[in-house]
Amino acid sequence: MNPTAATPCTTDDLERVLGDADDPTNPLGFGAVLEADERAEILPAGEKALDAFGFNAEFVPRRLGGRLVGIERLMLMMRTVSRRDPTLALGYGFTNYISGSAMWTSGNESQQRRMADILLGGGKTAAGYNELAHGNDFTRTDLAATTHGDRILINGRKQIVNNLGRADAVLLLARTGDGPGNRSHSHLFVDLAQGPADRVDRDVRYPTVGLRGCLIGGAEFTDYPVPADATVGPVGGAMETVLRAFQTTRAILPGMMVGTSDTLLRTVTRFALDRKLYGRRVADLPHARATLTGAFLDLLAGDCLSTVACRALHVLPGQTSVLTAANKYLVPKVLHRSSHALGTVLGANSYLRDGTYGIFQKFARDLPAITFAHANASVCQATMLPQLPRLAARSWGSAPRPPKELFELDAPLGDIDYGALELTSRGADHLTAVLTHPGTRALLPDTAVSLVELLAADLADLRERCLALPPGEHSVVAGRAGFALADRYAQLAMAAACLGVQQHNQHSDDAFLRGTDWLTGVLHRIAARLGHDVGALPDSTERRLFEELVSREENHEGFDLGRPPLARA
Prior knowledge:
By secondary structure, the protein is an alpha+beta fold. The chain has 18 helices and 10 strands. Helix 7 runs antiparallel to helix 10 (358-369) and helix 9 packs across helix 15 (480-503). The two termini are 17 Å apart.
């Protein structure tokens, strides 16, 4: 398949391009992925295949000739690649979208056109935010941009930036003012293909434990000149652009990680079905079965929150500053813990770097690394925490139910409008209203109803705690208690997302999605994480969930909400 940029493409089309992951002759299969990882390089055949697919068009808005329409669709395309190889997904790469999202948010027409031309021509862009001395604290950026006549001179370093060494252009976060605070930083569009190569050293590469093949590098700029109009958005306006644009990346990245978790779970499920211990299959041992089922539920819950976060960018764009931060904080955390638990089932095989189960150790290393340099967990908690008292005062217990389009997986979404995204949610939170609305419990079994009641009480308790927070405890310097409240909010948002997805997809052809076993399971796990003594999942529920897991493995279907067909030779 060799589609043009404007050709509509689906995840099924992309899966067929990637081919059977288990076929040893497939240059895009797991064998080749492991070999590339050992060489610390991005899978060469993978990059060629994505070039032929025109994958960069997924990052470019339709109005500029690309295929970017809905954020949920982009998330699912990224998930498909991440299920095959997280290094390929990020390194090919998703960095193109991170830099692009800021451009689509604040760039002028000429800048957006140039960015689109680079990407649609198969080029690479980088997002130059990080400096080792300051991590994710962008307000302390040292790289400076000063105006000299009709040009701007850039001086300083950026580190831990994906694809910087081979990028045709980079979107740089630079200090453009001397004062402290958010108004001293701007975005600059630096066209490296047209600038003086002797004024920038970008040969540094940082070896990493996970995502070994990604070209994580650095650059040092010395009086590097760019035109005076290279600023993206208003001078001093970079932080506002970040707060808007990163809402989309915080929605997409966790949903992309669901694909990585799918492969981890699939690998251990196959091991448990094939390997015998104490005269029985590993899959028949209670602890192993509970671990597999729990990981399946965590994957579904993560998919629910990520999907709702993506859809909210279209349906409730004024409320996503908190929701997407909750998604970026919680889903990677839950999936990482599941990965560790799955490793205990795989045992010594979880350390092998080749063979039938060798893919596990690579994906287990890659999973936490996917988010290491992009709005880490603490940053996301610090984004949520200052807004919680206002959500408590204006929404919790009184907000209306969200529109059904937030949850209906087949409800169409229009083009993403970056300008509609707000800097804060202004106290609005319709998602958690699902937990307290009487209609939520009408069609649920008693076990699920009791869990919803527990979680609704948790929301009421969270409201009181947030209203009682002293000012110093809902700022970026809050103590442990404040950050614990952000965690509780994220857990409740996940529960509400799962409830909404189950209840608003009763028209689906998928009987499992319409059913309540998975919903009961995910609510059970969320309640346990919130400290409730809910005991073990009922045997009958766990049995049906495990049967579903095995059925999907045998039928070569994905473990997520959409259960996509996986390519076979």
